[in-house]
């Protein structure tokens, strides 16, 4: 039988969890209350529900069996992780949080950070010694005030040399402190393409960095370049969040300057809100208003209900205004996208979903390969924040849909492959927005017809142990619409 549960608060002593959790008022609550929310949310919405036997609607035959199952887990995190389908392959991105206030801040670009966006690099596969390289610095942050810049090298934190042997054997936790110092160095290739003879030499200089509550403006660099008679707009966009009006104003500047070519730099953009991806796609174009941009696919049960009751929820269309704000669209038929393995989710959505409509010339390396999206689910009757359970601040961010373009292209697990492969090199990162920065220079050369492309795929391209810049959120696409109440009501009470 189909077993949809009301909130279970176990009364019998045999059903009580031995471990408890505290809310913000230091009141003890039973973990089963949170576990019940976690299971119900995953059972209702999880994209890979059909692949997880413990999420089957007929998994439990009684409330007692269900309560026993919940109470076998020592924490909500353990339960959540047990319900993830193939963490290393299919679902690398679902997460749970014990503080949805922090989660909301994170999704909106507000974090505790010192502003140094960096990655950890290795010299070879066998050498455990590591060093860091600064990818970019947030304006106005501690790192900016201390004078750090893109391309700076550091090899130690608080005087300890960085090392990495395995995910559980490294000293990356040194970065967790609110304040820490880094020792700067220079990178030397010794004139060879091999890594084994490379070295980092100390500069004898250290920099102290302090984290603060900081909101990043995702419009990191924007400028108009006049090259070879071409008006080229350049926008480095680091996250699909922030102000829609500010982004619209950037495109107004491009439009008034007569921009006819656009380079969209997404190399460090790991995603963000679905609505901002729609906005970006519509600003680049403008001639496709009302046409389908995105198609979404949920788990089988949800998909059937949406198709029956609310099919419009399964698609997103190009727009020409947002909340009454007219868009300064460029009406382009071509865009250049700069990408790396850190370009994920909403970044990939823009590239993939624009391709059926205009030429998208991708320059860089393969993207991350995240074609799924999530909603924030709260412990409330309809999983929205309205009427949220006041006893705790847990929320879950599971993958609940995958997206495709109008031609149904999806499931690009290995990422989107560039038209022109050009890896960032550790010895020549360049200045973001500068005409001579390698990736931008390649785009400009392609635009003006003067490009002399050299495939830089090789040992000196940037690699990292965790394949993501430190201080970033792993690939995310957050659908910021609410699921209609008539849909959740049908799911919960059916």
TrEMBL record:
This is Carboxyl-terminal protease. CDD domains: Peptidase_S41_CPP_like. Residues 202-423 form the Tail specific protease domain. One of its GO terms (cellular component) is outer membrane-bounded periplasmic space. Pfam families: Pept_S41_N (PF18294), Peptidase_S41 (PF03572). InterPro entries: ClpP/crotonase-like_dom_sf (IPR029045), PDZ_sf (IPR036034), Pept_S41_N (IPR041613), Tail-specific_protease (IPR005151). Gene3D superfamilies: 2-enoyl-CoA Hydratase, Chain A, domain 1 (3.90.226.10), 2.30.42.10, 3.30.750.170. SMART domains: TSPc. GO terms for biological process: proteolysis; signal transduction. Keywords: Hydrolase, Protease. The keyword Zinc does not apply. The keyword Cytoplasm does not apply. One of its GO terms (molecular function) is serine-type peptidase activity. It comes from Seonamhaeicola maritimus.
């Amino acid at each position: 039988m189909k077993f949809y549960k009301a909130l279970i608060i176990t009364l019998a002593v045999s059903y009580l969890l031995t471990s408890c959790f505290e809310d913000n008022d230091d009141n003890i609550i039973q973990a089963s209350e949170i576990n019940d929310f976690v299971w119900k949310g995953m059972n209702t919405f999880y994209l890979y529900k059909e692949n997880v036997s413990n999420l089957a609607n007929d998994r439990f035959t009684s409330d007692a069996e269900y309560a026993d199952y919940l109470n076998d887990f020592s924490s909500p995190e353990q339960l959540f992780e047990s319900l993830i389908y193939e963490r290393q392959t299919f679902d690398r991105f679902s997460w749970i949080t014990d503080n949805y206030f922090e989660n909301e801040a994170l999704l909106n670009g507000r974090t505790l950070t010192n502003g140094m966006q960096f990655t950890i690099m290795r010299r070879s596969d066998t050498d455990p010694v590591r060093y860091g390289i600064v990818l970019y610095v947030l304006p106005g942050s501690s790192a900016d005030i201390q004078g750090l810049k893109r391309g700076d090298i550091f090899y130690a934190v608080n005087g300890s040399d960085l090392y990495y042997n395995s995910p559980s054997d490294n000293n990356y936790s040194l970065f967790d402190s609110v304040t820490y110092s880094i020792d700067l160095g220079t990178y030397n290739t010794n004139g060879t393409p091999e890594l084994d003879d490379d070295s980092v030499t100390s500069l004898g200089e250290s920099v102290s960095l302090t984290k603060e509550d900081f909101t990043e403006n995702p419009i990191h660099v924007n400028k108009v370049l006049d090259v070879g008679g071409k008006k080229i707009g350049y926008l480095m966009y680091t996250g699909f969040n922030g102000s829609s009006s500010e982004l619209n104003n950037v495109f107004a500047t491009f439009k008034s300057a007569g921009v006819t070519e656009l380079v969209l730099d997404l190399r460090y953009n790991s995603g963000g809100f679905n609505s901002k991806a729609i906005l970006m796609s519509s600003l680049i174009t403008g001639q496709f208003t009302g046409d389908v941009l995105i198609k979404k696919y949920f788990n089988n049960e949800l998909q059937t209900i949406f198709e029956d009751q609310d099919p419009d929820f399964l698609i997103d269309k190009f727009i020409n205004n947002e909340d009454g704000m007219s868009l300064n669209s460029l009406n382009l038929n071509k865009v250049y996208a700069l990408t790396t393995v850190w370009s994920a989710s909403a970044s990939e959505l823009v590239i993939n979903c624009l391709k059926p409509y205009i030429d998208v010339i991708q320059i860089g390396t393969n993207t991350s390969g995240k074609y799924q999206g999530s909603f924030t689910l709260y412990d409330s009757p309809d999983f929205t924040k309205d009427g949220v359970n006041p006893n705790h601040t847990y929320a879950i961010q599971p993958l609940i849909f995958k997206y495709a373009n109008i031609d149904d292209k999806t499931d690009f697990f290995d990422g989107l492959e560039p038209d022109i492969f050009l890896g960032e090199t550790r010895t020549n990162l360049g200045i973001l927005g500068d005409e001579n920065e390698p990736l931008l220079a390649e785009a400009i050369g392609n635009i003006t017809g003067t490009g002399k492309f050299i495939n830089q795929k090789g040992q000196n391209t940037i690699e990292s142990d965790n394949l993501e810049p430190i201080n970033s959120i792993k690939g995310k696409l957050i659908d910021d619409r609410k699921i209609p109440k008539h849909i959740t009501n049908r799911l919960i009470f059916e």
